[in-house]
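Need residues for this backbone.
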């Protein structure tokens, strides 16, 4: 039987765009909300009217995007170490969330080498604690656990990974995230029995204003150039699926909406650009073009601990099931990122900068959504 399904773009909201009506008044638990992606996501969710409670460690470093966006008072009562099973259980029981986004993690490859026990305890044990608490409380309808493009067993072929490829990893961080996904898989059936669905979200390398973490490409560049120093780059020919932070965050939210519905969802989705990954040197050359006097020294040979040379994701499944496809090109994402950092250095309010980027992204998404309607001019799609 054929039924009519209204295309959201016909009412001004393109397919693959988070529905503000869905999020209005929703009780959301967001772990890792003091981190880079978490701070951006908290801002977006609350702008749509969601009631968000965070669960994270204190922000790291002298500069924090979270504090710039939300202030320090917001931290009271929300600082939680996800390795503490009893505290996680207490917090989740007090929140009774409808939607859970689990972003909290030890996410740095080199820190994983330096401290494997903490990396495993946070990424595996912490995920187990969160999922167990969610199952015990039984209030949630959807859980999205974010992992990484590095969960795949990398054979060095350079091909784009699809969701059914074997998981693995050659460093503690990558392995910890692959095992994290096994924990997620173990909770599929128990949570579904409670009326809750869970999925993993695998995103490529994200860029965007407000990231101040160590060992991150653009933050390291901004810090070096701000001090008038030359940026030292260890692996200039490493290839990664770079994307602006707003791209995967949109995917996470749309995935949560789908999990709350009746449509089929896969157990995991890739979120990244359709194009092959970009080389580190090419990304930095683009970034440097936005900064006066930017200097870079590229290493002649690979140095340091092992990291995958090439990583690439195939996001076709997310495009098919969720209607989520990248909107900004790499050049556009870099331009917005560079503008954010330059404006921040000139004294701009990070809240204004993030809002400006969100508005620009929404405009690009609306334009892309309406252009895709060319094949369905009445705004409707026929589905079996």
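Answer:
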């Amino acid at each position: 039987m054929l039924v009519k399904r209204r295309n959201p773009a016909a009412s001004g909201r393109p397919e693959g765009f988070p529905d503000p009506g869905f999020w209005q008044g929703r009780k959301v638990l967001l772990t890792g909300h003091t981190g880079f992606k978490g701070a951006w996501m908290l801002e977006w969710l609350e702008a749509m009217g969601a009631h968000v409670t965070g669960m994270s460690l204190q922000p790291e470093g002298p500069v924090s995007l979270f504090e710039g966006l939300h202030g320090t008072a917001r931290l009271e009562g929300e600082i939680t170490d996800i390795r503490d099973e009893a505290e996680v259980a207490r917090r989740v029981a007090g929140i009774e969330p409808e939607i859970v986004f689990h972003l909290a993690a030890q996410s740095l490859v080199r820190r994983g080498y330096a401290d494997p026990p903490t990396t495993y305890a946070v990424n595996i044990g912490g995920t187990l604690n969160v999922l167990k608490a969610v199952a015990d409380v039984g209030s949630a309808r959807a859980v999205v656990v974010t992992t990484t493009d590095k969960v795949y067993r990398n054979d060095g072929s350079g091909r784009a990974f699809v969701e059914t490829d074997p998981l693995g990893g050659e460093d503690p961080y990558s392995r910890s995230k692959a095992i994290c996904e096994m924990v997620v898989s173990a909770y599929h059936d128990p949570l579904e029995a409670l009326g809750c669905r869970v999925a993993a979200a695998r995103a490529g390398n994200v860029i965007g204003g407000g990231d101040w973490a160590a060992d991150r490409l653009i933050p390291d560049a901004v810090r070096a150039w701000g001090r008038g120093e030359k940026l030292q780059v260890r692996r200039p020919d490493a290839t990664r699926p770079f994307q602006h932070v707003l791209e995967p965050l949109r995917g996470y939210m749309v995935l949560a909406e789908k999990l709350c519905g009746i449509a089929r969802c896969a157990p995991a989705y890739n979120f990244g650009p359709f194009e092959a990954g970009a080389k580190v040197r090419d990304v930095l050359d683009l970034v440097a073009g936005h900064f006066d006097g930017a200097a870079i020294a590229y290493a002649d040979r690979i140095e340091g601990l092992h990291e995958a040379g090439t990583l690439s994701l195939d996001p076709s499944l997310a495009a098919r099931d969720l209607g989520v496809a990248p909107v900004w090109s790499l050049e556009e994402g870099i331009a917005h990122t560079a503008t954010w950092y330059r404006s921040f250095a000139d004294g701009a309010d990070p809240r204004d900068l993030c809002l400006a980027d969100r508005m620009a992204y929404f405009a690009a998404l609306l334009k892309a959504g309406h252009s895709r309607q060319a094949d369905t001019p009445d705004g409707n799609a026929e589905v079996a």
